[in-house]
Write a structure and sequence with these properties.
It contains 17 helices and 17 strands. The chain folds into 2 domains: 166 residues, Rossmann fold (3-Layer(aba) Sandwich), CATH 3.40.50.1260; 165 residues, Rossmann fold (3-Layer(aba) Sandwich), CATH 3.40.50.1260. The longest helix is centred in the N-terminal third of the chain and has 15 residues. The structure holds 3-phosphoglyceric acid (3PG). 3-phosphoglyceric acid binds next to loops.
Length: 375
């Protein structure tokens, strides 16, 4: 893979080069306001590097699915750090005009790629349009590199591909997680059991202990014979024998349950038929802390409870515990990052990945389509 550092070694040759930069600006928003700027801040070093090299930078990114959201607030946010022009219509003549008129070191952000159906379908005509904005391509969006989209796998077939600084940082973080120091604790939460099952099976051979939390834990609790009442389960017929029998797998010992409007803390063995487990309670966090105290490395992805439903205390408490632990820590995943931001404990982590799904995919397969496209 070629790094932008290699390309720009000779500043005289590369000055004025047009760079099409794929960033991930899929940031959380509420009432038109950005509520988490982590991905934006992490994109700055590459932009600053390219700007200092005198490149003419056209940035592309997405926000949300394909529901007409705009990157305009991201452009406003970025303008606190760099001069930037926003182009609200990728296909318009005006946008082409602005792009053609960029001077060395200037930055243009194009509107949400996913407003165009060609992005997700990797449409060759859309790929050509995107590629026409650059002389070289830079992928700085590790967190989207599991998607076979035009800006991820299409463009690097046409423009000479390069890795951005954030992409390189994220790949180093993933290598660390795959070759960790021991004792190593893996904490995996969230839902979507069937997609996370291969990861759990793989890490049974890498980690010394695995704490499974969130809805993910319910299936294994049930396989171990616990009553989980009305708690969310995957609903799939999964073979959990290996996980249920492994003494490496640790599960919640004390949980928050709801029953109608009632909310209660219960020992796991006391959960009743009508209870729904929605979060990890203090007893569980104390257990995790005990294990963590003996560890040198911890990898964490996914919330311990029904986070989007407001049951965030267990996850927030875990963010604090891990940030204070002696063990080196690496984290990723949307809700996980939100919890870290909420608790203001970013500095307590050795590595924070911007990736959610891409991180999980990479840890299972050790490759992503978007990274293969850079090779
Ligand atoms: C993310 O938020 O994980 C990335 O931006 C990818 O988004 P997606 O899951 O909507 O493809």
């Amino acid at each position: 893979m070629r790094s932008i550092r290699d390309f720009f070694k000779d500043k005289h040759v590369s000055k004025g080069v047009r760079v099409l930069l794929r960033a991930d600006y899929n940031v959380p928003m509420k009432d038109g306001e950005i509520t988490g700027d982590f991905r934006i801040l992490k994109s700055l070093p590459t932009i600053e590097f390219l700007r200092d090299m005198g490149a003419r930078i056209v940035i592309v990114g997405h926000i949300g699915g394909d529901n007409g959201k705009t990157l305009a607030p991201v452009s406003t946010y970025l303008s606190k750090y760099t001069d930037i022009v926003f182009a609200p219509d990728i296909r318009s003549k005006e946008t082409r005009h602005v792009a053609d008129g960029l001077r060395d070191g200037e930055v243009l952000l194009l509107e949400n790629l996913r407003n165009d159906p060609g992005e997700k379908s990797n449409d060759p005509e859309f790929v050509k349009l995107l590629a026409s904005f650059g002389d070289i391509y830079v992928n700085d969006a590790f967190s989207v590199s599991h998607r076979e989209h035009a800006s991820i796998v299409g463009v690097p077939k046409i423009l000479l591909p390069h890795t951005g600084l954030l992409m390189e940082e994220e790949m180093r973080l993933m290598q660390r997680a795959l070759h960790p120091e021991h004792p190593f604790l893996f904490v995996l939460g969230g839902a979507k059991f069937e997609t996370k099952l291969p990861l759990l099976k793989k890490f049974l051979h890498i980690a010394d202990k695995i704490f499974v939390g969130g809805a993910l834990a319910h299936d294994i609790l049930r396989a171990r014979g616990y009553n989980i009442g009305k708690s969310v389960v995957s609903g799939k017929d999964l073979d959990l024998t290996e996980l249920a029998q492994s003494d490496k797998i640790l599960l919640p010992t004390e949980v928050v349950v709801t029953r109608g409007d009632e909310v209660e803390v219960k020992k796991i063995e006391d959960v009743g038929d009508e209870d729904k487990i929605v979060d990890a309670a203090e007893g569980t966090l104390t257990e995790i802390k005990k294990v963590l105290d003996g560890c040198k490395f911890v990898l964490w992805n996914g919330p311990l409870g029904f986070y989007e439903g407001g049951f965030d205390e267990g996850t927030n408490a875990l963010a604090k515990i891990i940030s204070e632990a002696k063990a080196d820590s690496l984290v990723g995943g949307g809700d996980t990052l939100t919890a870290i931001g909420k608790m203001g404990v970013e500095d307590g982590f050795e590595g924070i990945s911007t990736a959610g799904g891409a991180m999980l995919d990479y840890l299972v397969d050790e490759k992503l389509v978007g990274i293969e496209a850079l090779e």
